[in-house]
Amino acid sequence: MTHFSPVTPMIVAQLEAIVGARNLSTAVADRQLHAQDMSRFAPQLPEVVVWPETAVQVANVLSLANAQRIPVTPWGAGSSLEGNPIPRFGGILLSLARMTAVLAVHADDFQVTVLPGIGYKDLNVQLARYGLFFPPDPGANATIGGMLANNAAGIRTVKYGAAKDNVLRLEVALADGRLIHTGSRSIKQAAGYDLLHLFVGSEGTLGVITEATLRLTPIPALMSAVMASFPSVAQAVEAVVAVRGSGLDVAALEFIDAGTAALLARENQLDLPARPTLLMELHAAHPETIQPGLEMVRAICAEFGAERIHATADPTERQRLWHARHHTYETWRRARPEVQWLITDVAVPISTYPQLIAQAEAAMAAQGVGGFMIGHAGDGNVHVTLAIRSAEEERRVQAVNHALVQKAIELGGTCTGEHGVGIGKAAFMPQEHGTAVDLMRALKQMLDPNGILNPGKIFPA
Amino acid sequence: MTHFSPVTPMIVAQLEAIVGARNLSTAVADRQLHAQDMSRFAPQLPEVVVWPETAVQVANVLSLANAQRIPVTPWGAGSSLEGNPIPRFGGILLSLARMTAVLAVHADDFQVTVLPGIGYKDLNVQLARYGLFFPPDPGANATIGGMLANNAAGIRTVKYGAAKDNVLRLEVALADGRLIHTGSRSIKQAAGYDLLHLFVGSEGTLGVITEATLRLTPIPALMSAVMASFPSVAQAVEAVVAVRGSGLDVAALEFIDAGTAALLARENQLDLPARPTLLMELHAAHPETIQPGLEMVRAICAEFGAERIHATADPTERQRLWHARHHTYETWRRARPEVQWLITDVAVPISTYPQLIAQAEAAMAAQGVGGFMIGHAGDGNVHVTLAIRSAEEERRVQAVNHALVQKAIELGGTCTGEHGVGIGKAAFMPQEHGTAVDLMRALKQMLDPNGILNPGKIFPA
Description:
With about 450 residues, chain A is α+β, with helices and mostly antiparallel strands.
């Protein structure tokens, strides 16, 4: 896999013939902008950056690279957290940033067909006039292509699903330059093998998504936010299990620890006590239908000892709250600029969430590691975010990460709920999947026999 | 693919050593019981029927069959409609009927782990005590394994999704006898390739599902049924588009034609006028929340000219209604015993549903073919069911089926919404999927190089 060919001047000329001179750069500045995602993995300069404008250009770049054994790393917005788009073996960095068109809004069908480079936030701005939105919301302005490639998820996934649940049809460029389509615009489909979900979550290692038809959701008429503060982490996470077990269809159910609540309150002028806190959102089409849900949430939180429960339907307050939650990581970075952070990402069956959180607290204490904890608790997903100030501390932080992953897999969960495997989780794949990893390798070999697509990801070296 | 070996007495002895004498039969009666599904395709006797009791036995049967080049056709309940489990090349019929255990109910997680042979209705009876159910409901008492293998769906799929949307983890026996697992009990997963959805819907041609962890839903506290009668088919199906477009979260949205409404009314003592009719169901957790939805449905139906709208929350009436709807086909068969029927199955984007239905009516008129029309209209899915009384009429009926499939694909839909490809839809795969069929064939070749798994299905000959 490492016996790749260099990007020679002749290759650059051939690439230029495919994408046009304005869509190619070998300038160091451009290469540096595509050397690293938001993770802590070592940057790696690509040899050339190309910005194709059409699916056929993408396919032709792959065809050339495949024939010449040159690695190709697809790039969306570079907002990944596990090194997913770092071009580890140099080669061609294939940015989808110039393929941003909305091709068709099928408003009556709650669908939209887009090119992969559009940011999901930008897309949702365009969709607002139709009263529709694409629900998965990872926070950063990830591209649709990147979200699909990593099966991204977020705060509202508890109600609306992850990226994989909100896509109906894809066009994909294969390593050998073939363009295929899979799925259809029908929401019901039973015609042969589900290739669509094979490409979703494959992190650009099996093909490059060049077009997607997404499933949209009507913007709810009413959104109500609830904040509940608990005396202890254990009580808060037990309340999460109870809220989910009640069958209540919450649209968000987030856990934040006491330190984060204090920080967000201070930095965002939010009225949040410095306590383990649950942030929830309820969606409804009618005023009559939101109140019973709010009452149920109140009752459950009270039962688990909540000291304070505050509900709001005020859009400004709700938006400030979620904006703050979405920018937790940046807020911590500003608050402690001397520190580097490892953002972990594991997910478990919801009934075992308290065990996972207890393990996180125990492992942090045992290793003498600090940090903060936020989680898409309604999904059993947590991001324990650990502070690193030295190489020695990094070893202890990695020990906590390792302990978390072990516990998550032991509890029937997964080493990654939404950040994908990339570089960071590759070592855990055999433990989580057993011999199914052999099958994944066989698929990779079948679809990308020369190993040119995003090499060095997903599989342990 | 057709160069298979026969099941010799020595093979029978080896199979007997794997599954035990009581779990194997070469008796003609047993072979006849597994020669045909509910479709009109020619029956084919298997050479031997085995009923393994464990995943290891399944794997060992496959391992032996693979080494000896003997076809293996998995069998659930035989309720398929496209010839999916007909053993076209004889060989081994592998019935999962004796693997029916519920291994674990994870009530707090809304999950259950089962063996594949359990019927979904039987499972739902067992789950009722936990207040939970497995929502996909194809009607016949299909097995969970069969539903997953065909990606079955049904009346409530419009709200709760198809089989593929309600499964988290699988154990699968591969053609070479390997047992793998894929997915996890975490509802959020982003760890590598989605093998789970590759096996779901593969109709037993890539592997045999030996265990499944399913996602469950709390039984709604309140269910309300609405029946609306329209002056014309066009008005009824336009109302479907409007109901869906309103964003109302209906749990069922079925269309039945005037003739079927009359028949169901007569045979089931239902108060249904002989008119194109929509049957709907709304689910809610609170009494306050169901009324606004009902009012919205009433308003939309009235806007599209509904002559009569009847809503009921009475469980007995509701159950009688859905029982009647689920048994439409049997009711028609009893009413016209001299007739054979072809049940078609196409699905389209909901906005194009009126065009599909208009095409169905036009094609039936053009070919002079009779029948009836029922559809999971909320999903854009329709089953036009056509009467056949002679070989000559069969040709005309097939012409209608062909015209329907062409129209569905032209409208951005699919040749099968929920019955799968089996034998009946294989010819349409290249048209629907283009060159992606080559990729499906490559997957088949990779996972089943000797072609022993359910040969003669999905791919055109």
